[in-house]
Amino acid sequence: MITKTANASESKLRQPPTAPGLPLIGNAIRFMTSKGLPLEFMNEAAARYGDIVRFKVGNQSIYLVSAPDLVHEILVKRVNEFHKAPIGLETSKGLGRFLGTGILTADHEEWRPQRKLIQPLMHTQHIASYADTMAHFGQKLVDLWGDSAVRDIHADMMQVTMWIIAETMFGADVTHTPALAAADHDAQAITVADVQSPLPGFMTHGRDRQAVEVKKVLTDVVQRFMDERRAQGNQDRSDLLSLLMETRDEDGNPVSDEYVRNNILTLFLAGHETTANTLTWVFRYLDQNPDMLAKLQQEVDGVLAGRLPTFSDLPSLPYTLMVIKETMRIEPTVATFPRFIGVDTAVGDYRLEANSVIFISPYVLHHDPRFWSQPEKFDPEHFSAENEPNIPKYAYLPFGGGPRVCIGNHFALMEAQILLAVIVSRYSLHLAADKVVEPVRLITSSPEGGLPMRLERRHS
After folding, report:
1. 10-457, which class in CATH?
2. N or C: where does the chain have the smaller number of CB atoms within 10 Å of the terminal CB?
3. What is the pLDDT of residues 344-356, one digit of tens each?
């Protein structure tokens, strides 16, 4: 029995075109790249074969869906039918290894009550209180720069977003826990490997052992902070860990420690490296486009006149936000995300087979010339007040879409806008001459080997 869409009868269904591959292994070699997801390959396949294209990785079918209306069908109209995790596995794979059934990884029935409880904590009215913290740590970073000649901007963005996430999530300093950042990176690599290389269990023992070790590092850090909160007693704290620990379920009972750990780790992993990577790419593109940098600095100087930005300044910094949005178009926060199907089904007019994976790729959608003029060109005017309303819905997905859109999207945009304003008001950044910039695309995208840039102080 095939689950049919509203606009396709079973007799009219057709098989999606299949990208040619090698006997037995199909497209496995193209998917098992050393630098993460094979986005150029996927982009070329979408341009050549259309809105849905099928890849084979061994016996596994992977479907790339790259039409906004079909993405809307999957993420909104039929959200309950397309699952966040593989169907029928006894053990979790992907991010579920590390985040359990938290708000990011839980399937729909478990997700719904979590979203209801956590959503108020991420409302704009609540996170607005974090704006001054973000500006403070932006100032702390540029104070450290001083007259430095060259800095690894990716490392610095990771540092400043770590300061911010530690303060807002934990109300504490986690910089003395370097294993945390390493565990974050390892979790991404394992997650990508799980999706790209869906090997049978007897072939993934090494990956499984590493995943257990990574999860222990992550959960031990959060548990330590939870224990400290309890030891400190009843205090008026505004960090998200404290607020989560005080949360009650719909019956008025305290949520479990596991619930708190899963969800604070979700917010930590989703809210740290993602913004750091986006800002890193911002500085790369601004260096390539000095006229845009000059326009950005003119806006920031005119609004701030040398002071730190506040939450109330953000509406007066539209070009700053346009630069960030365009960066997330060129290098999306998450380039590709999966959905899983357990039974034969159909999307649009295409028949999809059971136990397969659907890839929705913001990267592919964001580079599609059907929806973007000169899609390979960095152009913040895509997001001007005149142009942004004309972007087709679900052609731009920097935070996903539908009811499961990223819960931290407002936090991330506010953080990026504030940090960018602080930095460009004080410095111009230029790529070190001998650096070749190549992206490594795991769950998020970062420049291989960091991004060394030469600093030019503007004014104190």
Report:
1. mainly alpha
2. C
3. 999 999 999 999 9
